[in-house]
């Protein structure tokens, strides 16, 4: 549950590891949660800007560069889904949605609209920090020198994935993927010809204990296919292996 207890020693260790102050936009209309999260996140060297208004959230995003956004579903004037639908096409920072009662429909809709992760209320702040860290580690890849142990470019037919810039091109056109969508596609392309189960994909993209609901990976794979103009029935890139998982096809051929 959300509490005001703060593990200072852990936060100090995290600050030393990251060495940078990350800007968080918190969109939440529950004043108690806002106050507690603002205090808690600040001890981990996050700079929090909080608002309960979707209109105000848009203005903040126009005026400042944020590293990550925490977005509640239930908001006054406009719900979080509507705000996400409007922002996602032009906003490439990670977005974590907060959903009430862990409702399955909320989670499905959030992922389909482009959320990178979700948490159900009530939640443990330490877990929120862990998920924020995981998302930020992956988005920071483009600001670092490439890992020479891996190919910077992954190619399959006319599909190209650039690890360093975290960009996707298909037939010389840019494809916009969310953080989690990019990570899934990268892992699939890294393992061409190998069937990856849903649990294995989840483990690979999070790198830590995580308990998704059953449809998470399926929804994200569906979004990737739509953006790549791929077909589940006649795939060029991603094939569903019934009862086993997903397979990335060699050279973009079925």
Provide tags for this entry.
254 residues, alpha/beta, Rossmann fold, Arc Repressor Mutant, subunit A, 2 domains, 5-stranded parallel beta sheet, 4-stranded antiparallel beta sheet, 9 helices, 12 strands, 39% helix, 21% strand, disordered N terminus
Instruction: Examine the secondary-structure arrangement and name the CATH architecture of the largest domain.
Output: 3-Layer(aba) Sandwich
| Helix share, percent | 25-40%
Contiguous helical run count: 9
- The backbone outline, from C-alpha atoms, is globular
CATH fold description of the largest domain: Rossmann fold
Described by strand count, sense and barrel closure, the largest sheet is: 5 strands, parallel
């Amino acid at each position: 549950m959300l509490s005001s207890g703060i593990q200072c020693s852990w936060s100090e260790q995290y600050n030393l590891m990251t060495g940078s102050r990350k800007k968080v936009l918190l969109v939440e209309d529950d004043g108690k949660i806002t106050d507690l999260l603002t205090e808690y996140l600040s001890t981990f060297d996050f700079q929090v800007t909080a608002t309960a208004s979707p209109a105000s959230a848009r203005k903040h995003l126009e005026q400042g560069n944020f590293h990550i956004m925490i977005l509640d579903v239930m908001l006054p004037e406009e719900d979080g889904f509507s705000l996400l639908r409007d922002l996602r096409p032009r906003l490439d920072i990670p977005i974590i949605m907060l959903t009430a009662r862990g409702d399955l429909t909320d989670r499905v809709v959030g992922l389909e609209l482009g959320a990178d992760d979700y948490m159900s209320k009530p939640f443990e702040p330490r877990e929120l920090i862990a998920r924020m860290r995981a998302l930020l580690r992956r988005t920071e890849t483009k600001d670092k020198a490439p890992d020479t142990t891996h190919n910077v470019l992954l190619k399959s037919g006319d599909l190209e994935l650039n690890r360093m810039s975290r960009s996707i091109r298909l037939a010389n056109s840019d494809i916009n993927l969310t953080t989690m969508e990019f990570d899934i596609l990268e892992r699939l392309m890294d393992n061409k010809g190998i069937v990856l189960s849903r649990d294995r994909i989840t483990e690979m993209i999070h790198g830590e204990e995580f308990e998704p609901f059953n449809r998470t990976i399926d929804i994200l794979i569906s979004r990737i296919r739509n953006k790549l103009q791929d077909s589940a029935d006649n795939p060029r890139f991603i094939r569903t292996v019934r009862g086993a998982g997903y397979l990335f096809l060699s050279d973009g051929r079925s």
